Every structure is written in C-alpha cells, then in structure tokens.
Amino acid sequence: MTTTLDSGPSDDLGVAGARRRGAELERSIRERPGTFRALTGDRPTGRLHLGHYFGTLQNRVRLQNMGVEMMVLVADYQVLTDRDVADRLTERVEDLVLDYLAAGLDPGRATIFTHSAVPALNQLLLPFLSLVSVAELGRNPTVKDEIAHSRQSAVSGLMFTYPVHQAADILFCKAGIVPVGQDQLPHLEVARVIARRFNNRYGTPSNPVFPEPEALLSAAPLLLGTDGAKMSKSRGNAVALAATADETARLIRGAKTDAERHITYDPIARPEVSSLVLLAALCLGRDPHEVAAGIGGRGAAALKALVTDAINDHFAPLRARRAELAGDRGHVRRVLRDGNARAAAVAAATLAEVRTAMGVLY
Ligand code: ATP
Ligand code: MG
C-alpha cells in the first residue's frame, strides 16, 4: 500500500483530546502497568525547574513506581536547535541526571541515556524525514514559538526538523506513553503520524512496526514563570528545583502579578496571579480555588509569602537529596554509562526491524 504525505494528523488535536485519551490510558496502565513503556526527556540546557517537575517529572516517577518501564532521554543533540554552541555540556548533562535522581527516578528501574551515545536511534531520523513534508514541519506551533524566542539570527535545519528527531526518540523504544507538558502535543502528533505512515508504507496491517504513542499530561501541563510566560530554562523566568530557599524567595518576590488586590484563581483572566496560586496549590496538595480564597483580600504579598514557603517546604527533601548525590559524580557517570548501553541495545533491535521492513538489510 502506498501512503501519501497528505494523510494528515488525526482530528482530535489539542489538550482536550490528549486529556481524554490520557484518562483511558491511565485506566489501562493501572490494570497492566508492566506491559507499558514510557519515554520522555529534557534538553540539558540548564537546571530543571518547577514547570518540569509538575509538568512531567512527577508523572515519570509515579509511572515508574507503578511498574511502567521508564526511558528518560537527556536530549543533548537538541541543545543545538536554538543556539550555536552547546555550552558546558558535560556539567549540564550531569546536573540533569542529578535532578532526575533527586526527584526519585531510580536507575535500577529507569533507563537514563543521552542522544549522542545511541547512534542507531539517530539513524531512524533518515527514513522518518522522508515521511513528513516541509510544509507540515513549517506549521508546527511549538517550533514557531521557539524560533521566535531563539537567540540565533537564522533558523537551522536542526531546529526545523527536531520534532522528527523526537519521533525517533519515542519510536526507537516503541514507547506507548510520553509524559510531557502541553508544548509537546504538536510533536507527539508528528510522532503518531510518522508511526502511522511508516506502518502503512513498510509494515503489514497485522504486524505494524511502531505503536502510536500517547501523550500523558499532568494537572499542570503549562506552568507559567515569574514573568507570566511559559516557565522555561531559556527565558530566565524559572524557579529551579535545586534553587536555595533564599533564591526561591527572591524569585517569587519579583514575580509579576496584577493591579487587583483580591486574590482569585482565574487562569484565563488573571494568568500571573493564578499561576502563583497554582504553584502553592500543587506544593500543598490543595485545590487552587481554596488556596486563593484563603488569601482573599490580603493581596499579592501574602500570596507570594505562601508560595515561597510552600515551595521551600515541598522541595526541601529533594534539595537535600540532590546536594548529597552531587558529591558523587562518579555515580552519575555510571548511571549514564549503564543507561546508554541499555538504550543502545534497544535501538539496535529496532533499527534491524526497520531495515528489514524497508528491505535494506544487507
Ligand atoms: P528550554 O527553554 O531549554 O527549551 P524548557 O524549560 O522548555 O527548556 P525542555 O527541556 O524543552 O524544557 O522540556 C522538557 C519537558 O518539560 C517537556 O516535556 C516539556 O513539555 C516540559 N515542560 C517544560 N516547561 C514546562 C512548563 N512550564 N510547564 C509544564 N511542562 C513543562
Ligand atoms: Mg523547551
């Protein structure tokens, strides 16, 4: 069967669709956790922040602890999507691994690995690129947003095509679950489309090569930073997981609010204030409306004091664990070496299957 490039994405795009499919997925995971594999990752562009934690990291640890096989990618090649040089890469990669371990990812159960150490994964990029059109790549809203914020004067081919590289990240290990933040939904759709087109072109209906992966969103799929825009490592608006209590207090004190004194939770009309309310609610395990009502007319200063204490209390154990782990860089390197070896074996098996399906196994 031939597939044309215009057999486009499924209709059910966006957060609502992802949430509905995610709820169904959660039910299946609870019944048979051992039959699922999840993959997700982060760029080693700086320390992980609260957006990562509540957007995806907490979900990763939860899935791991339920018995789902977890693959966690340190996306080192993708550092170069929006900058010319990958600065202090070894240090940043190790810092990321420290954040993972401190948050509760267990290298005995989770495979933590880097792009650059798994050549067979990267080779999947070539056949996958043949399955998407330039026009489709140009329409990706997350890539458009990242290009707008990029420090580079020209858009590189890597920036333009990185969602296809991410499809290789997900499909090389045939992950069915991808716990991510909202900005990743367009990329997940690219991965689903590529899986479908590859299967149609090279597989047989009874024996598809790739499963179609599903995004798993958290309760906070788009946490805002101190300036009211998406909290992001690259935008200087983030509270790092590993920040000190004083740094946290300073950052939250400087967070943008609005002119209305009475605190309410209204993410559409009052994104900045609501984001602070949500942060406190997530840390305290409470409902954001209740948290806002508790502050009421006491205003933004009281809200910021509450948020600061809530963050510092919630993350104190993680921060202490991280400081302890940071003393043993040798352990971090061993975690990566073992993870890279495991990921490379999985990638080699998938690449052999892909080459067989394509008829290029000599
Ligand atoms: P950079 O600015 O370097 O791109 P980032 O902060 O956007 O960094 P990524 O490494 O691109 O972080 O994203 C890693 C994962 O964390 C993705 O699944 C992404 O959806 C999620 N994530 C990042 N920022 C947030 C946020 N503010 N809220 C919820 N999830 C987030
Ligand atoms: Mg990003």
TrEMBL record:
GO molecular function terms noted in the UniProt entry: tryptophan-tRNA ligase activity
PROSITE patterns in the cross-refs: AA_TRNA_LIGASE_I
Enzyme class: ligase
Ranges where the record places region Disordered: 1-23
InterPro entries reported for this sequence: aa-tRNA-synth_I_CS, aa-tRNA-synth_Ic, Rossmann-like_a/b/a_fold, Trp-tRNA-ligase, Trp-tRNA_synthetase
Entry EC no(s): 6.1.1.2
Sorted UniProt keywords: Aminoacyl-tRNA synthetase, ATP-binding, Ligase, Nucleotide-binding, Protein biosynthesis
Superkingdom of source: Bacteria
Family note: Belongs to the class-I aminoacyl-tRNA synthetase family.
Protein name: Tryptophan--tRNA ligase
Organism name: Microbispora triticiradicis
Phylogenetic classification of the source organism: Bacteria, Bacillati, Actinomycetota, Actinomycetes, Streptosporangiales
